[in-house]
Design goal:
single chain; about 20% helix; 25 strands; 25-stranded antiparallel β-sheet; alpha+beta
Length: about 500
């Protein structure tokens, strides 16, 4: 589907939403509408072409024609067959879309350190979809492939990728608050990537192989402003000339305002089953491994969330000291991000204030004031409830940090189950490791600051204030930094930091 999206998205304002005969006049109209988003030159140079074929319109994209039209810095080699979409208007005003993206591609060019090349082959790639011009989105779609291979070569690195069968789906509906709500999925079987690095200058020479029998991707969005974004694309094409852009900047500001908040929310997840990484030091693995990211659109109190989760972790043990094996994590759940992020005020003020007739369009003073206003809204770095587990040991943590006066103010809560087992492992290691023997008393001191919870866990609530003071469970660990006057009228908060003494 990712091959289809860039082209068909531009059909949003194409042939009117009525049933019609597919003919040369319709092809001309479709060409004119596509030129609004890709420029007339794309058709003049043969990069894009619309024709009638088998009762549908064929939209052909010839990247090689674009490369051939480049005035200089052409690749040493570029082989890629034209990519085609078959589109046909439906009686309800939407479009049937079909493509065969089975493809072989190869190119080579001169990089800064010598020739670079890549070959890509997709076997039996097919896709169908229904596109709604009123939503500027796919209301439904599915694609599949039988397999894929890719190789890339550089002076100091090469990579080989293979993948088995793959499927993808996409769907969208009209959002209640404007824009489009969408969901998309993708699944690829038997994914293997081998990377070989050979960099004598940095003393690096090793192979890595990443392998998973199943790679999955899930994404969903709410309130994506598809039509206003296409309007911006059309404006960019129509105003490529700098003088024309400056003359029409009032229209640009109106279009930028209309595109806000860009989207209400977007979330995505990459998941791997039985994930393995083979390296010179051994094999790393996880039964389940996933990364997730989510972000609000441009809003007055936006959030950004990240998560990394792994279960059934295995780590090579041959290079580790024996005492540390008992502490190796088997399950990880990390959650972090940001909150109270006011991009809405910043965006609207910047759109209103910029002037393309000035250099720079926004003054440094305006930028400084904008940043100060952003920080005044107390944006936060957030550590969501996160855990690291191993057998009877579990470390959990959560907290947040703000920046009053551009200085960090943080509160973090840490609680541990099985702390005694951690101490036992460190004590065993201290018998043979001199550095660990010096650090071991620190572990005992930390325990002394802990609060025992009803379930037996130890808890530490750590407050680090902007004035440099640090408390643990309400007890002062480090007082505020002394205010020093160096004659500049500014405070010097370079304190020595918190220290634990056994």
């Amino acid at each position: 589907m990712k091959h289809i999206l860039p082209i068909v998205a531009a059909l949003a304002f194409s042939v009117p939403a009525v049933a019609q005969t597919v003919d040369s006049q319709g092809a001309k109209q479709l060409s004119d509408n596509l030129a609004r988003y890709f420029g007339k030159q794309a058709f003049d140079k043969g990069v894009l072409k619309v024709s009638v074929e088998g009762g549908a319109y064929k939209i052909a994209l010839d990247i090689k024609a674009l490369v051939d039209a480049m005035p200089k810095e052409k690749p040493l080699r570029f082989d890629l067959a034209p990519y085609a979409l078959m589109v046909k208007p439906r009686s309800d005003g939407s479009w049937d879309v079909a493509s065969d993206f089975s493809q072989s591609m190869a190119f080579e060019f001169n990089g800064p350190e010598g020739p670079q090349s890549m070959q890509l082959a997709v076997k039996d790639g097919k896709g169908t979809a229904v596109y709604d011009p009123n939503l500027a989105a796919f209301t439904s779609g599915a694609s599949s492939m039988a397999g894929m291979t890719m190789t890339s070569r550089e002076a100091k690195q090469q990579a080989d990728v293979t993948a088995g069968a793959g499927t993808a789906t996409i769907a969208a509906t009209k959002s209640a608050n404007g824009g489009v709500d969408f969901t998309a999925t993708q699944k690829v079987l038997s994914f293997v990537e081998t990377i070989k690095i050979d960099d004598p200058d940095n003393g690096m020479s090793f192979p890595l192989t990443l392998r998973t029998p199943e790679l999955s991707v899930e994404a969903k969005g709410k309130g994506v402003r598809t039509k206003p974004l296409l309007d911006l694309l059309a404006f960019a094409v129509a105003n490529e000339d700098e003088a024309k852009l400056k003359a029409n900047q009032a229209e640009l500001k109106t279009l930028l305002q209309a595109a806000l908040p860009v989207w209400e929310r977007i979330d995505g997840n990459y998941g791997f089953k039985d994930f393995e990484v083979e390296s010179p030091v051994g094999k790393f693995g996880a039964k389940q491994f996933s990364t997730t990211v989510g972000m609000d659109g441009v809003s007055q109190s936006g959030k950004v969330d990240y998560a990394i989760k792994a279960s059934g972790l295995t780590i090579p043990q041959q290079t580790l000291p024996g005492w540390s094996i008992a502490l190796l994590p088997t399950d990880v759940d990390l959650n972090f991000g940001g909150a109270n992020i006011d991009l809405d005020t910043m965006a609207k003020k910047a759109i209103e204030a910029f002037d393309l007739n000035k250099n720079p369009p926004l003054s440094d003073e305006f930028g400084d004031a904008l940043v100060a206003d952003f920080l005044a809204k107390t944006p936060k770095l957030v550590l969501g409830h996160s855990t690291v587990k191993n057998g009877s040991i579990e470390v959990a943590m959560e907290g947040e940090m703000t920046f009053p006066g551009k200085k960090p103010d943080a509160t973090v809560t840490v609680d541990v189950a099985g702390y005694d087992k951690i101490v036992e492992a460190l004590q065993e290691g201290a018998k043979s490791d001199a550095q660990l023997a010096q650090a071991f008393p620190f572990a005992l001191a930390v325990k002394g600051f802990g609060k025992t919870l009803p379930d037996g866990r130890l808890e530490w609530v750590i407050n680090a204030k902007a004035d440099g003071s640090v408390t643990v469970n309400g007890a002062m660990l480090k007082p505020a930094d002394a205010v020093q006057d160096d004659g500049s009228g500014q405070d010097d908060n370079g304190g020595a930091g918190a220290k634990l003494q056994p």
